[in-house]
Design brief:
By secondary structure, the chain is of the alpha/beta class. 51% of the residues lie in helices and 9% in strands.
Length: 196
Amino acid sequence: QRVGFMVGTGVMIGLPGQTCNDLADDLRFFRDFDVDMVGMGPYILQRNTPTGDWWLEQHPMLAEAVIARDADTITAEQQHLLDTHAAAMYELTTRMIALSRLMLGDANIAATTALQTLHPTGREVALMRGANILMPILTPTQQRESYKLYEGKVCLDESAAQCRCCLELRVAAAGKQIGYHEHGDPPHYNRRMQKQ
């Protein structure tokens, strides 16, 4: 920061072993470090990774439900368990976005695609709760399957033009406008640089 760099950080919400106290510490860190940008999203399982394996160990009933879903033998109770967990992660993540907005004022805060993976209007709700940045998926469509960060990622089959159209509709549904041809630096960064 002292040499003029924009500083961003973030948190993955719902990691194995994470507590609400950990998330409160993250919020205090964002504030105390005076960050310019924050990215946060829900942890979504990606199996065959160290974190995914740890998550499955920490959540045995959810693990059984995931396995049953994949085998097409899921029960209504197991589906309800998965839906309840997804709803809880969605709610916790959007609350963290709202708290970050209250604590950070004019920092850039992303509405992540992972939220849309959990809920069809996840990014719109994130915008309404304090996020002000959307990140379009510009990876060439034919390469996206190789760049999945988590299971069930949405928008893998959209072209860049389709993604732009979709984001325009989502932003409008949230009662916001896209700032085309505007520089995306966080107002927080610009204000901080004027003080130096």
